[in-house]
Amino acid sequence: MAEPTITLKVARYRPGKDSAPTMQTYSVPYRQDWVVLDALNHIKDQIDGTLSYRWSCRMGVCGSCGMMVNGVPKLTCAAFLRDYPSQEIRVEPLAHFPIIRDLVIDMSDFLDKLKSVKSWIVRKVEKPVAEGEYRQTPAELEAFHQFTQCINCMLCYAACPVYGLEPEFLGPAAIALGYRYNMDSRDQGKDLRREVLGSHHGAWECTFVGECSEVCPKDVDPAAAIQRTKVDLAKDWFKSVLLPWGAR
Amino acid sequence: MNGTAVRPDKSKLHYSKMPPTWWLKKPAYLFFMLRELSSVFIAVFLVILLAQIHQLTKGPEAYAAFVQKLSSPGWIVFHITALLFALLHSVTWFQSTAVVMPLRLGERELPRNLVLALNIGAWVAVSAVILILFLALRG
To answer: Which of A47, A165, A190, B67 is deepest in the core (most CB within 10 A)?
Structure first.
């Protein structure tokens, strides 16, 4: 018996050759245990070696293989063919990002934004190593732990219409990571991040569509982080207006 | 800020624009737009309410004439629509509250659905009290 097949419509864009992406159709074996990434690898290895896309770990950790699958941002290593019974799957590069080639997007905007929120622990004065580690209680860890799960896959940016309409928007993952470090009891960089998080293109630009959290493969819930950042910013503003200088 | 990272040649990138109909492409986007639109209906309703209160200052006849105007089919349809949007606005507001301001019991965060249920419970209770007062004062 012939092996069942499934049709993959894959976006192709060859810089310098194509003026806009076009869809190319491939027929690939349909296997119960295959994910979309397996199908793309089959195309690359067996049918068309010119197809370009990013991938690395195949296990939802590296965050490289994010693409639009039937219009929804997905990690293709976690999108099983069996979950698309329509016999035809459309694979496109992540929405809202410039396309370099085929399914490969330019992520430099995201990387700049990630850096701008200082997504690392900022200390005013580092403690000498001899004094030991910075200790935390389970409750202090709990305050930010969920937001440490971000793998920078950018699915949240592809789901966010605000980012699509206004590319200057800092975006879900960058704000969530800014919030993550603000909530970390070891961190002292909140004042430095406020300038970016509280700017016009920071948290305030978010209109709480909420789709970032829906598509997040790691349950980070960036939408919650953004709204809580707004609450923090508002509290800080009230403090700056109401409290005497010394208590701010 | 860019350091020495290699950047792709911008002239070779393909930029796509979101179509003006982007909000029709996903039920979640459409729901979001309806949520945002709800504020318009609530604003119009409040303006009408203020106008109605203002009529009270002009005497009983003026007020009765205004209320008479509002009983036309067009205004009734508007008020039913505004009520539905107000319900949508309120429920999504409480949903947001559960996300924005998580409640903690000791070290544990309460489930969002419980926070939502508590909010809606309080809302229904307050609405019931207002309705009872309204009926009592009327009768």
So the answer is: A190
What is the token pair recorded at A27? 């027929």
Going by pLDDT thresholds of 50, 70 and 90, the confidence category of residue A90 is very high
Domains and CATH numbers, chain B: 24-138 (1.20.1300.10)
- Over residues A2-23, the pLDDT tens digits come to 889 999 999 999 999 999 999 9
Nearest-CA neighbor of A66 among A152, A1, A127, A140?
A: A152
Considering the domain delimited by A108-247, tell me its CATH architecture.
Orthogonal Bundle (1.10)
| 8 A C-beta contact, residue A169 and residue A201 | yes
Query: Do the beta carbons of residue A136 and residue A145 sit within 8 Å?
Result: no
The CB density around residue A85, as the number of other CB atoms within 10 Å, is: 7
Could you report the predicted ipTM of this complex, rounded to two decimals? 0.88
CA distance B65 to chain A (A): 41
| Chain-chain contact of B96 with A208 (C-beta, under 8 angstroms) | yes
Q: Which has the minimum average pLDDT: A32-36, A125-129, B20-24? A: A125-129
Whether residue B18 contacts residue A165, with contact meaning beta carbons closer than 8 Å, is answered with yes
Question: Is residue B102 scored above 60 in pLDDT?
Answer: yes
pLDDT band at B104 (very low <50, low <70, confident <90, very high): confident
Beta strand pairing call for A66-69 and A88-92: antiparallel
Question: Taking the CA of residue A170 as centre, how many other CA atoms within 13 Å lie in the half-sphere pointing to its CB?
Answer: 32
Quick one: DSSP state of residue A64?
Answer: -
Q: Domain locations in chain A? A: 5-105, 108-247
3-state secondary structure of B70: helix
Which of A96, A90, A102, A107 is closest to A53 using CA atoms? Answer: A102
Closest residue to A164, CB basis, from B14, B18, B102: B18
Which of B15, B101, B107 shows the shortest C-beta gap to A139? B107
CATH 3.10.20.30 fits A5-105, yes or no: yes
pLDDT band at A62 (very low <50, low <70, confident <90, very high): very high
Residue in chain B closest to A106 (alpha carbons) equals B8
In angstroms, the CA A64 to CA B135 distance is 62
